[in-house]
UniProtKB/TrEMBL annotation:
Family: Belongs to the class-III pyridoxal-phosphate-dependent aminotransferase family.
Alphabetized NCBIfam families for the sequence: PRK07483.1
EC number assigned by the record: 2.6.1.44
Keyword annotations of the record: Photorespiration, Pyridoxal phosphate
Reactions catalysed, as given in the entry: glyoxylate + L-alanine = glycine + pyruvate
Protein source organism: Carpinus fangiana
Gene3D superfamilies listed in its UniProt record: Aspartate Aminotransferase, domain 1, Type I PLP-dependent aspartate aminotransferase-like (Major domain)
Coiled coil region boundaries: none
GO molecular function, one term: pyridoxal phosphate binding
Cofactors (names): pyridoxal 5'-phosphate
Protein name, entry field: alanine--glyoxylate transaminase
One Gene Ontology cellular component: cytosol
GO biological processes: photorespiration
Length: 451
């Protein structure tokens, strides 16, 4: 066993790790993690696109301490307090009147579970028992979380495999919008979008338009296929199909939202407004586990007319310390105008990645948005034939990058599509990343892939 690594067999901690002997981190500061063997690892992914301010921040630490000394916890089924009130107000206001309320939770999976339940409750309160909308349409290449409901919603084949048949039966699927994989040679963006809209329309027709509760999608696909943005006009077309049949549009912004793609909510760039949106990772920047679901007026008004409350509740919902941490993270993002830096550094990151990675062997596609970029690996660049995930190409590159002389943390993925396609790495630096760091990250990534 290498020094600074913990053997899983000897650990009392039982959780999923990509490594049989994970590196032990002893401190984290700025954009670097220090390991027990003295390595300084450049964190080019903010963990899993989480630590958007980098590691360690005096202002956030002070806000957490202040909250601990004021109200650390109060049962949110009975009481409220300043931090959850302020955070939900901030979130709702950030949508310029489109969203009406925020439900605050602890993780992205919980946020997706909550979104699904509240969508179902909306139709339950609105319709007769005989005309319930119980079906969801999601996309084949997607990841929406690890709890049984959210896992059923996602199409990540490898992560679902052990749990088939899924608990949630009422999810059917359409294609992801993926220009590299899905768009054929004779198509342009417009005709591709028209085909995908027709596919969604056909799916509504197949399962019965009046039975569909919601269409669910990640604006930029994260863990399933590695930072795949939709083409121009795709979400507008999907919104139109949902509206045609009175179904909801749920956007899962857990990974791609809260500034990661250059605007606070990714949907601002798509010129659509979802009925329900989820968010997590960048919301609290990793200083505390925090997530949220926002609901638009249509849904909240129905709750107010009907039962008055969501039929949902969790012990740690709207946790004051998590809310105080998230609020301070969001204040810093606003005050330091970090989204402008995301856009500027994101453009540079994309440009350098294309310049240095496009022509490397096995690099099939470089794509992304804001500070959220992915590299898909293929065996054959012309036919786009994927690697077998058992070959572990994405994970192999990630492991190599962690070693000296690179000492770079990349985020790997594989096996998401038909158990095959989806071998990729993701880059998701902090919102305050500098130009020199962006250049260094791309240099190290290119050097690792070349090796
Ligand atoms: N939804 C998306 C789009 C995600 O990327 C993830 C996690 O990566 C989740 C949901 C689940 O979030 P969590 O891991 O916080 O439960």
């Amino acid at each position: 066993i290498l020094p600074g690594r913990i053997k899983q067999q000897e650990s009392a901690l039982l959780h999923r790790s990509l490594h049989k002997a994970p590196l032990e981190v002893v401190s984290a500061s700025g954009h670097y993690l220090t390991t027990a063997d003295g390595r300084r690892i450049l964190d080019s992914t903010c963990g899993a696109a989480v630590a958007c301010l980098g590691h360690g921040n005096e202002r956030v630490h002070a806000a957490i301490l202040k909250q601990l000394n004021t109200v650390a916890y109060a049962n949110s089924l009975i009481f409220t307090s300043t931090a959850p009130e302020e955070l939900s107000r901030f979130l709702v206001d950030s949508t310029h009147g489109h969203m009406a309320r925020a439900y605050i939770l602890s993780s992205g999976s919980e946020a997706m579970e909550t979104a699904m339940k509240l969508a179902r409750q909306y139709f339950m309160e609105k319709s007769t028992p005989e005309s319930q909308r119980i079906n969801f349409i999601a996309r084949r290449e997607s990841y929406h979380g690890t709890t049984l409901g959210s896992l059923s919603m996602g199409g990540h084949v490898a992560r679902r495999a052990l749990f088939e048949p899924m608990l949630l039966k009422n999810v059917t699927r359409v294609s992801q919008c993926n220009a590299y994989r899905g768009m054929s040679g004779h198509e342009n963006t417009e005709s591709y979008v028209a085909r995908l809209a027709q596919e969604l329309d056909d799916e509504f027709q197949r399962i019965g338009p009046d039975t569909v509760c919601a269409f669910v999608a990640e604006p930029v696909v994260g863990a399933a296929t590695g930072c795949v943005p939709a083409v121009e006009g795709y979400f507008r077309a999907m919104r139109e199909v949902c509206d045609r049949y009175g179904a909801l549009l749920i956007l899962d912004e857990v990974m791609s939202g809260m500034g990661r793609c250059g605007t606070l909510h990714e949907w601002e760039q798509e010129e659509v407004v979802p009925d329900i949106q989820t968010m997590a990772k960048g919301l609290g920047g990793g200083f505390a586990p925090v997530a949220a679901v926002m609901l638009n007026h249509r849904i909240v008004d129905q709750f107010i007319k009907g039962s008055g409350i969501p039929s949902h509740g969790m012990t740690y919902q709207a946790h004051p310390v998590a809310c105080a941490a998230a609020l301070e993270v969001q204040r810093i993002v606003q005050e330091e105008d970090l989204l402008a830096n995301v856009r500027k550094m994101g453009t540079l990151l994309g440009q350098l990645m294309h310049e240095q990675l496009d022509d490397l062997p096995y690099v099939g596609n470089v794509r992304g948005k804001g500070l959220f970029w992915g590299v898909e690996f293929v065996r054959d660049k012309v036919s786009k034939e994927p690697f077998d995930p058992t070959e572990g190409v994405g994970i192999g590159i990630h492991e190599l990058a962690l070693e000296e002389p690179f000492s770079l943390s990349l985020y790997p993925g594989a096996g998401s599509v038909d158990g095959r396609r989806g071998d990729h790495i993701m880059l998701a630096p902090a919102y305050n990343v500098t130009e020199a760091e962006v250049r260094h990250i791309v240099d190290l990534t290119a050097a690792t892939i070349k090796k």
